[in-house]
Amino acid sequence: xxxxxxxxxxxxxxxxxxxxxxxxxxxxxxxxxxxxxxxxxxxxxxxxxxxxxxxxxxxxxxxxxxxxxxxxxxxxxxxxxxxxxxxxxxxxxxxxxxxxxxxxxxxxxxxxxxxxxxxxxxxxxxxxxxxxxxxxxxxxxxxxxxxxxxxxxxxxxxxxxxxxxxxxxxxxxxxxxxxxxxxxxxxxxxxxxxxxxxxxxxxxxxxxxxxxxxxxxxxxxxxxxxxxxxxxxxxxxxxxxxxxxxxxxxxxxxxxxxxxxxxxxxxxxxxxxxxx
Length: 276
Prior knowledge:
Largest sheet: 7 strands, mixed
CATH superfamily: Vaccinia Virus protein VP39
Structural class: alpha/beta
CATH class: Alpha Beta
Strand order of the largest sheet: 3-2-1-4-5-7-6
Distance between the termini: 31 Å
CATH architecture: 3-Layer(aba) Sandwich
Number of strands: 7
Oligomer: single chain
Number of helices: 9
CATH topology: Rossmann fold
Order of helices and strands: HHEHEHEEHEHHEHHE
């Protein structure tokens, strides 16, 4: 386990530097509950659960929730939100790409923007298939970045790339999650196992930030892309970026707004084992 993963470093600022709010998460949870026709006995698993932002509404509604994450600090933030660990919540500190659970343990497995962190996606999908109950649901979800924030990020990437090139042959200061070794066509792969799929937009909402707020997020190194160069060079990149923002946006107090989306690809587990 990489104890120097950047999630430990950003755990205290994770929620406030993202764009999924507690109220939106609650609405998305209600959408998921209806989607899977949840009953009081429905059990949920989220690998890469982090601070629990996606599943806390499920915990508060009384559902059995299990979360697994490589970052103990992120799990600690989860616990602090609930003032402990209620009986219907189980948190496991381990590599979320390896599921230490028995076959057919869960009615719903939820992944939210985490498949890209898995080193062997096919093995991980096999694990999800294994721990799901017959007719269970695998919900692969994404918070789609609001376009204005995506454009802001692109400007920063362009500046930081000049400093990254200096360290192309050396390890970064703190590695962000490892990208998949082998790409797998998720839709095709699960279809071969007999899954049925549907696509949904669970929620759309407007996200607004001042340039100064976004700049502060980057100064705090709140995202994986911010850990690609050592601190000294990162400071230089940030100083250059702040000057760029002042010139490009006209004022650091300018507000930029755009629409975010919560997307769900829902896969229904077959009633019988796959022969593939």
